[in-house]
Amino acid sequence: MVLLAQVSGFLGSGKTSSIIRMANEAQKRGLKTAVIVNEIGDVDVDGEFVKSSGLKAKRILGGCICCSLGADLVSTIKIVVEEFKPDVIFVEPTGVALPSQVKRFFLQASYLVPGLEFSPTVALVDGVRFRTLLAEFKDFLTKQARDAEILALTKIDRVDKKFELPLIMSALSEMRPRTRVVGISSITGEGIPDLLASILGERIELNPVENPVQDDSVAVSGVGNADFYGILRSDRYLDEETIRSFMSEVIESMGRKCVEKTGRILGHIKAFGETDGNGFKASMVDLAVGVEFSGKLPKSWKELRLSLFMALEGFESEEMRSFLKERIRETSKKYGICVEALHRNH
Questions:
Q1: What is the DSSP letter of 155?
Q2: Spatial CB neighbours of 197, under 8 Å, sequence gap ≥ 6
Q3: Which residue, 33, 168, 187, 284, has fewest beta-carbon neighbours within 10 Å?
Q4: Is the pTM of this model over 0.85?
Q5: pLDDT digits (tens, 9 = 90+) for 51-101
Q6: CB under 8 Å to 191, separation ≥6 — which residues?
Q7: CB distance 133 to 141 below 8 Å
């Protein structure tokens, strides 16, 4: 038997880091795990970071597995089962996916792959940005939560536990009555074992739905997206601080552009860098917090492979792509870095 576990949630809610935590915890319990990562864009950030963490992963790029790439999800599940022979497959949809539509393709996969079982669907909710998301994105947030059996409030290490946390947990309970609500932190690990226990310990039945809603989740979300894939090169060795500063300047400039236009950042800007087999992730959802890094940043490097992706509300995709291309060009010139863009859109 192979257990399929969907871990959904809005852009920047902490899906990848939570899945890595749970997958590692499951492996400590003797279970073989694999991860399927979906990105709206055509470059892979989270899948590469998952692999750099030592986990087995497959990626699905260029759309959303809950709608346009549903058939790809079905075939990828089959490939993962045959290639990795896992006990548990964690499925990470895009941040704009609708979990109910992903479940439809889980059901289709069960006709193709014998022995599939289904865990309760988890919808992650960003504890730090909860008020903003509720105020600005309530309808979409509710759509993501409506078919989840478990709501997991993330980043609780950064939420005031005495006053704010109980209020948010209560609000989630009111949003989805009779749905289990838990708090977790991928940084400290708090709540992760309990969430994993719920995923491993329960099974749900998936039944065909007559006339299912088949929204284009990317269109429904109202976010635009842009990406970059290429190689950074220097004629001299550069240090960790240089790549940290370079990435921060590029990402924060995009964040400032977003704030200038809409007054806020509602979405996610993230990047994966790799050199000499070491990989790191840079991520930002809040300009005040800035860019957060995880993984292994290089101590010394002359060549680095970079994937960068952003999905932001309030922007047309072409506008974002143009500005991103300009910022990478200008920032690389400042640091004396040569940029070779490899992605077809650049």
A1: -
A2: none
A3: 187
A4: yes
A5: 999 999 999 998 888 887 889 999 999 999 999 999 999 999 999 888 999
A6: 152, 156, 182, 183, 184, 185
A7: yes
